[in-house]
Amino acid sequence: MQPHQLNPAIEPQFDAVTDYILNHLGSNVPLVEKIGHYIVSGGGKRLRPLLVLLSANACGYQGEQHIPLAAVIEFIHTATLLHDDVVDNSDLRRGNATANAKWGNAPSVLVGDFLHSRSFQLMVDIGRLEIMQVISNATTIIAEGEVMQLLNQRNPDTTEDAYMQVILGKTAMLFEAATEVGAILADAPPAEQEALRLYGRHLGIAFQIVDDLMDYLSDSETMGKNVGDDLAEGKATLPLIHAMRVGSEEERKLIRHAIREGGLDDLQPVLAIVQSTGAIDYTRDKARGELDKAIQALDALPSSSFRDTLITLAERALERTS
């Protein structure tokens, strides 16, 4: 079951967002529209726009502007995917060839810029300055998170705190913005806006931790990306950070070498170390802790089916790791 199918009341709104996205990909340049449609139609759960819809509804919103607002969030997310795949030199996304693998790096970057710009056009049409402030702040922090990740690449001395700072920026900030702007649009009381902001932040952190964990658990068919991509790119994610912290000197040296060199030559022994040092359970527990915080934040919201769906989304976030 897809996330939007958890609540029948949200499905028509979710379908309206999909239609809105596809109807606003138009461009006078055919390649822009072609790449835009390719990446937007390439699968994915569209969790971030769903969070906008659920948050607005959970705060009693009765209007229609949550549809374009959800599209804004998805356009920003899609732009970051196009840019990320170029930076990471990825060739697989959601089980499909990446845009940069099909059309090259330059078109992918430029179409990412187009989608980013289109998102701000739509925000102007919505006309809520507070929403623009939240989203513009989030996009700035997302860019900083990506740069921090780049600086940490192939750095085996990356600390857990530094890792958490990166994922807060590059992933959690858009989750946080999605839930917060839904509440702002609904003119929710400050306590409810803050509750949904915190929910989005902790859910986003957990989401990225789970994604990083999956790199050491799954396969390309399940993940939609190549196994060991993070290791190949020299990313010191939480499973490796913990394994280096508690492993033997020999194990620590092997992982440090693997991070510095990148590639997949050491993938199998690294996988074995991650398993033997308890890094899988440690990382899963960290994600679970963030999800608990997300669910707890929702105590400030009135009871509704939409609040229940937000709770269910958090509860389901660890399913892929079991």
UniProtKB/TrEMBL annotation:
UniProt keyword terms in alphabetical order: Magnesium, Metal-binding, Transferase
Task performed by this protein: Supplies octaprenyl diphosphate, the precursor for the side chain of the isoprenoid quinones ubiquinone and menaquinone.
SUPFAM superfamilies reported for this sequence: Terpenoid synthases
Catalysis: reaction(s): 5 isopentenyl diphosphate + (2E,6E)-farnesyl diphosphate = all-trans-octaprenyl diphosphate + 5 diphosphate
Family: Belongs to the FPP/GGPP synthase family.
GO biological process: isoprenoid biosynthetic process
Name of the protein in question: Octaprenyl diphosphate synthase
Organism: Marinobacterium marinum
Cofactor: Mg(2+)
InterPro entries: Isoprenoid_synthase_dom_sf, Polyprenyl_synt, Polyprenyl_synt_CS
Pfam families: polyprenyl_synt
GO terms of molecular function: all-trans-octaprenyl-diphosphate synthase activity; metal ion binding
Keyword hit for Magnesium: yes
Enzyme Commission number: 2.5.1.90
Cited PROSITE patterns: POLYPRENYL_SYNTHASE_1 (PS00723), POLYPRENYL_SYNTHASE_2 (PS00444)
CDD domains: Trans_IPPS_HT
